[in-house]
Predict the structure.
Amino acid sequence: MNKKLRYELSSHLEDLKRQYETQRMKLAQLEGLSIKKLKASFRSNGAAYYSVYDPESSKYRYLGTDSNEEVSKIKEAHLLKMSVSNLLEEIMRTESFIRRSVEVDFEAINSRLSKTYKLSSYAGLASVSDAASKWKKEMEEYKKTFTPFRPDELIHRTRDGQYVRSKGEALIYNFLLDLDVTFIYELPLVIKNNYKNGLILPDFTILSELDFKSVIYIEHQGKMESNNYRNKFIESVYKYWSNDYIPERDVFFTFDLPNGGFDDSPIKSIVERCIRPTIISSYS
């Protein structure tokens, strides 16, 4: 299994577990109703009339039509019971598949060989990951042609050793590492500013896996309570917009929470919609 498919299946698994927990809680609120038995009689006009089995009298008690609240709740309980059972089966199957699968790209296969047979590279197992690796290498070389911007402000260390400017950026950086997407931190972007060439430094330039050529940008905002910071944010949005980098199409802005916390769900959403479209939407 390649890394992209593993990510998609893992995301699908998370979605299944969320659905399972939500529906299990709803079923718990209808305690006892999923074991009640209904009997329906159908009229010529298609209308249904329901009775429920009473174990104490061993007889059926008439309830009425679908509009009857007890009928509706019993039906909902039976639906949820089957749904919870099916979801649990799917969760177990998906977990088993992920657990038993193996990585099949060059690096993974090569790592399982003994030292005698390891190769430094092999074109025969080339894949789209090669395009991503080539892009990252070229962009890193391109970045080196620019003088670093205020390097003294790079004080937060990420897991791969990169230093960034804020805790929020460090969290996003590490999250992108977890998702195994290809990106560059603060890759200079040439723009027009007052009819002159200028530079901006998008926090994250991320390679799209749709074509392994186009990119999207993420800018993280962490001090929105500051008037000066908000003004700079508005100015940044205008710079992107005036250079045809449209918000929510080419560039995405993320924010610390008002209480100073961090929510990674917007980042995941951006990746799923614009970088690595997944199979999650098929199950939502």
Observations:
- The first strand starts at residue 38 and ends at 42.
- The mean pLDDT is 86.
- The first helix runs from residue 3 to 29.
